[in-house]
């Protein structure tokens, strides 16, 4: 009887997450002027360069996902949840200065759960769908956006989590992993823009300071908020997805 109630509770929670996601994505449409580098903004040479850099991670990520789903098919629903979490959070845009906007990334959770290579695929697919459905980002700039959000951010999240876990403070590790994944995404994007558009006076450094400074005003509090939200989602998973977390060796069998 207890098992039936638990399964019923899990199903209701998943329905609520899906309903909220649908409402945020479909029922609240708005023009997308977000930090994803927009279509045609990068010079062709730099667009190709970032595609070349990102593709090997995507291929390795496909192998990682294949290995995960074959070894533990029970984790497919959790994989979908990690992808949906990234999609919803990175689609939420907040106005920033100079008419631009900032948004969370949502990649830290998936990186902790499945590793950075798996998130390189999930994050890239999220960016692809956002470019096609929401005009958020672009196809020519997909390589650059994928490197910053789906590759650099998850790798930082993964290693920060492992480093902080040496202290035994798991929720702190989750918070820092999600927050720093968000911040590193915007630092990498600022680097990408500065490389493509160096300032006439001061070159790359001056341009990087300008781009990074523009988004720091809104991105720092957003990163903190994303870290706190990710901890809340982790607490939910700890309560209702404990078996899956044990499969991933993220909690002990006696927890």
Automatic annotation (TrEMBL):
Per UniProt, the keywords (alphabetical) are: Cell membrane, Cobalamin biosynthesis, Cobalt, Cobalt transport, Ion transport, Membrane, Transmembrane, Transmembrane helix, Transport
For this protein, what is any one GO molecular function term?
cobalt ion transmembrane transporter activity
The membrane spanning regions, by residue number, are 12-32, 44-63, 75-92, 112-135, 142-161, 173-199, 211-237
Give the top-rank taxon of the lineage listed in the UniProt record for this protein.
Answer: Bacteria
Claim: Transmembrane helix is one of the keywords in the record:
yes
Gene3D superfamilies per the UniProt record, alphabetical: 1.10.1760.20
Q: How does it sit in the membrane?
A: Multi-pass membrane protein
A GO cellular-component term linked to this record: ATP-binding cassette (ABC) transporter complex
Q: Does this UniProt record's set of keywords contain DNA damage?
A: no
Q: Which pathway is this protein assigned to?
A: Cofactor biosynthesis; adenosylcobalamin biosynthesis
Q: Where in the cell is it found?
A: Cell inner membrane; Cell membrane
Q: Which InterPro entries does the UniProt entry name for this protein?
A: CbiM, CbiM/NikMN
The biological process GO terms on file are: cobalamin biosynthetic process
Instruction: Tell me the subunit arrangement.
Output: Forms an energy-coupling factor (ECF) transporter complex composed of an ATP-binding protein (A component, CbiO), a transmembrane protein (T component, CbiQ) and 2 possible substrate-capture proteins (S components, CbiM and CbiN) of unknown stoichimetry.
Identify its protein family: Belongs to the CbiM family.
Q: Which HAMAP family match?
A: CbiM (MF_01462)
The function of this protein is: Part of the energy-coupling factor (ECF) transporter complex CbiMNOQ involved in cobalt import.
Protein name per Swiss-Prot or TrEMBL: Cobalt transport protein CbiM
Q: Which organism is it from?
A: Scytonema hofmannii PCC 7110
């Amino acid at each position: 009887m207890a098992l039936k109630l638990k399964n019923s509770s899990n199903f209701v929670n998943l329905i609520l997450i899906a309903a909220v996601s649908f409402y945020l994505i479909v029922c609240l449409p708005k023009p997308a002027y977000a930090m994803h580098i927009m279509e045609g903004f990068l010079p062709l040479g730099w667009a190709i360069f970032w595609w070349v850099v990102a593709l090997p991670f995507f291929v390795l990520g496909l192998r990682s996902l294949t290995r995960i789903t074959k070894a533990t098919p029970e984790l497919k629903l959790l994989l979908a949840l990690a992808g949906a979490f990234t999609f919803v959070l990175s689609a939420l845009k907040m106005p920033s200065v100079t008419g631009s906007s900032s948004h969370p990334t949502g990649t830290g959770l998936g990186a902790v759960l499945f590793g950075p290579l798996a998130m390189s695929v999930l994050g890239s697919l999220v960016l692809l769908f956002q470019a096609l459905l929401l005009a958020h980002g672009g196809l020519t700039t997909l390589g650059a956006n994928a490197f910053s959000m789906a590759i650099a951010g998850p790798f930082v999240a993964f290693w920060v989590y492992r480093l902080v876990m040496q202290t035994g403070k798991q929720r702190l590790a989750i918070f820092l992993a999600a927050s720093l994944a968000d911040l590193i995404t915007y630092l990498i994007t600022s680097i990408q823009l500065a490389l493509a558009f160096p300032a006439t006076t001061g070159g790359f450094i001056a341009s990087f300071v300008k781009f990074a400074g523009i988004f720091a005003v809104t991105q720092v509090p957003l990163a903190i908020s994303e870290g706190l939200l990710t901890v809340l989602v982790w607490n939910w998973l700890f309560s209702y997805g404990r078996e899956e977390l044990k499969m991933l060796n993220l909690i002990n069998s006696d927890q």
